[in-house]
Amino acid sequence: MNRKEARALAEKLVAQMTLEEKASQLRFDAPAIPRLGIPAYNWWNEALHGVARAGTATVFPQAIALAAIFDEDFHREVASTISTEARAKYNAQSSHGDRDIYKGLTLWSPNINIFRDPRWGRGHETYGEDPYLTSRLGVAFIRGLQGDGEYLKTAACAKHFAVHSGPEAIRHSFDATASKKDMAETYLPAFKAAVMEAHVETVMGAYNRVNGEPACGSKTLLKDILRDAWGFEGHVTSDCWAIRDFHENHHVTDTAPESAAMALLNGCDLNCGNTYLHMLQAVQEGLVTEENIAESAIRLFTTRYLLGLFDETCSWNTVPYSEVDTDEHNALAEKAAEKSMVLLKNNGLLPLDAGKLKAVAVVGPMAASDLVLKGNYYGTAARSVTLLEGIRAYLEPFGVRVYYSAGCDRVINRQENLAQPDDRLAEAAICAEQADVVIACVGLDETLEGEEGDTGNFSASGDKVSLSLPESQQRLMKTLAATGKPLVTVLTVGSSLNVPEGDAQLLAWYPGQAGGTALARILFGEVSPSGCLPVTFYKGLEDLPEFTDYAMTNRTYRYFTGEPLYPFGYGLSYTRFAPEALSVEGDHVTLTVRNTGKMDAETVAQVYVKPVENADAPVNPVLAGFARAFIAAGESKEISVRLNPDAFTVVNDAGERVVPGSDWDIWAGLHQPDALSEKLAGNKCLHQRIAVG
After folding, report:
1. Do residues 369 and 445 make contact, with C-beta atoms less than 8 angstroms apart?
2. How far apart are CA 515 and CA 381, in angstroms?
3. CA 111 from chain center: how many Å?
4. Can you give the pTM of this predicted structure?
């Protein structure tokens, strides 16, 4: 069914409704209208890295981890699997009359905001700091969720539109000020791609104001840009209770009816919250008309028709519940975890040889944690393997003894309330002394970096206050390092963290239900790590501008002028790769890479560009294309990389994307073309200069 047909049916249906009925359908918890055969429908569902908050579902690695894979096709496969489970669950639950929250087909994912500052607690929900990488993965995820059949498989949602990346504590009153250049170059490209390429069905507004206008009632964002400039035809939803902020926190209106009217008239069709309960009063006060309400109702029912919810012949309506939590989906989650983990540091300690070990110490508060596998916005995994369980299961056939100690609490200074501070440090040291190697599992979880106000957050805002481990874990790491035993540091985190200890460091992210299995396979050399950082790891906050400053100056790899801890795009392997040849033809770059090591492995070809002379270009070369490839030991492969169509353009101060007639430098390799990446990775990018324009 195409949109024109769906809208015609929606117009016919809405025309039969009373004003009260039309207004009622603009709520996220839309009630049934029995006389018209319309069942209740709850629009709010989440699927960030698996169907969330509605019972059993496959839990994939957190979004930032999926971004580290740098693979559009694989990303789409994950999203398609998520949408299959969403359909299966919806079909079964609705057949039982269960139409509760988190059980619909409108999935409020992906989060394609730019992760501009490592303090932002929700940054791990995103695809990182680069607009192009975020655009490509956002498009892939949306296409995977929505499918390519006659009807939408599910309806994806691009959020949070726009210029939204903290601070969480003041998001309900904050005005994010961004220049026209930063809007066009950084904050809007992923949303533009979601609308114009992926044809995303839903766009969600943000809590904050953007240049003075509340995002969920912004004429500039929702009318001038989204609908008029980009031709968006789907529906817009508010973030939850964001419209209430208009009068309570932003103070751009005085009353709830005025806030409802402002949002509706500027294009927000659906209210997650309760402010649209005042819509009829807004009509009485002459602030909106029945026609305004009808238009939004029509858009919403157009989506429901496109989903096939009123057509018994829709093939998606037959997806059986047996498609939930399958062995195949678990295998895909394991593969995703393996591909996403990033080897940050290695002095030759990894991979470990299980056949030569007698005892291993697994230490740290994240080792036995099930929560750390999940990130946030997660479902209930029917099977999950903690980091400790994965290591223990792998080593069991080898007869290797595994010693375990939590070592410390995640954040407070003791494990037992009546004990003295650091009551597990001695145990941690004892375990280390018994072992041939120590595997320290430390980091954060969603309670230490997360969303403002989330139940269980250690701090109310959810943002990070430093780029260091909590002090309890810092003391643990110093204790382990002091034993002198070989030390592997496994970091569970969704953002930049500076942990100095460890002969080897592996970034596991929040790796999903199969995280422990994947970790063990990497630690013991069954598979080589191949993830790449989708964010810059900084040494400390002193290198960064104020958190509330939304200008891109000295932010992200494109504009950062200091030396990072680990650069964007960086990640080590167990083998060695050597870029051998580079050719550029039109919008494609071909990079020949040889695996000069002894292990088969995957790697990511990365292409960066920069004009030779142009004041409008970012300070550093910019990612213009990427492609993941498998290369067997001793073999070479030609990797074809499609370039960003906007690769050889710049955005000027007026927010215009222009083609500067100049020479451009192109670098292709396995990381950025900077000195630190080349030093850490042990290989250099290849370079060409071409004339453009």
Report:
1. yes
2. 12
3. 6
4. 0.98
pLDDT per residue as tens digits for the range 557-587: 999 999 999 999 999 999 999 999 999 998 9
Q: Where in the chain is the domain with CATH 3.40.50.1700?
A: 327-535
Domain 327-535 CATH class label: alpha beta
Question: Where does the chain hold its CATH 2.60.40.10 domain(s)?
Answer: 577-692
| Strand 202-205 relative to strand 213-214, pairing | unpaired
Over 60: is that where the pLDDT of 456 sits? no
Q: Within a 13 Å sphere around the CA of 125, how many CA atoms are in the beta-carbon half? A: 27
Q: Any bridge partners for residue 591, and if so which?
A: 582, 639
Residue 557 and residue 620 in contact, taking contact as beta carbons nearer than 8 Å: yes
Indicate the SS3 state at residue 450. Answer: coil
Q: What is the 3-state secondary structure (H, E, C) of 467-519?
A: CCCCHHHHHHHHHHHHCCCCEEEEEECCCCCCCCCCCEEEECCCCCCCHHHHH
User: Where do you find CATH 3.20.20.300 in the chain?
Assistant: 3-317
Provide the annotated active-site residues. Answer: 239, 449
Tell me: pLDDT of 320 over 50. Answer: yes
Distance of CA 572 to the CA centre of its chain: 22
Neighbouring CB atoms inside 10 A of 555's CB total: 20
Kindly give the pairing relationship between strand 601-611 and strand 622-631.
Answer: antiparallel
> What is the band of 404 on the pLDDT scale with cuts at 50, 70, 90?
very high
Q: Are strands 235-237 and 202-205 parallel, antiparallel or unpaired?
A: parallel
> Three-class SS string for 589-624?
EEEEEEECCCCCEEEEEEEEEEECCCCCCCCCCEEE
Distance between CA atoms of residues 218 and 181, nearest Å: 19
Residues 6+ apart with CB under 8 A from 579: 591, 592, 593, 668, 669, 670, 683, 684, 685, 686
- Looking at domain 3-317, its CATH superfamily turns out to be Glycoside hydrolase, family 3, N-terminal domain (3.20.20.300)
Confidence at residue 458, expressed as pLDDT on a 0 to 100 scale: 53
On whether the 577-692 domain is CATH 3.40.50.970, my answer is: no
Phi-psi region of 85 (alpha: psi -120 to 50; beta: other; left: phi over 0): alpha
In 3-state terms, what secondary structure has residue 526? coil
Mean pLDDT of the chain: 97
Residue found under tokens 């050399």: 525
Q: Which residues pair with 41 in a beta bridge?
A: 30
> Phi and psi of 619, rounded to 5°?
-65, -40
Q: How far is CA 230 from CA 162, 221, 251, in A?
A: 15, 11, 29
Q: Are strands 202-205 and 41-42 parallel, antiparallel or unpaired?
A: unpaired
